[in-house]
Fold:
Amino acid sequence: MNAYSRDVRLKTLAAKDRGIPRKKVADLFGVSRSTIKRWLKRRRQTGDVETMKIRGRPSVKGEVLGARLSSQLRSNPDLALKEHCEDFDDETGVEVWEATMSRNIARLPGRWPSKKSKVVQERDEGARALWR
Structure:
């Protein structure tokens, strides 16, 4: 779920500051009463209603992938996704699943061509034309 816009947060709290009951403000802006309570608490503690950064465990593979992936794709453009994972494991010693590799390739700036499987790349077009 996406965070509410800063504008909605400020308007909601401004309505609450004018003395409108929390239930009416919640119905008017389409937010829950607990959300309004949380925003009031945040404003009281920090002086602002900006969204808080959600902390999580730092990515172990993300930094390594981000640093090496674009150069690996440039140096080996003909590899399939599974082969990129194996190559990455050989170079760094970090095992990466195909889904992780695919997500990180999609996050790279620019357009990276997706590779088809070897079966599709090596089919015999002559035999295929005869079959039709």
Remarks:
- Residues 60-108 form one domain.
- Residues 81 and 99 are 9 Å apart (CA to CA).
- The mean pLDDT is 85.
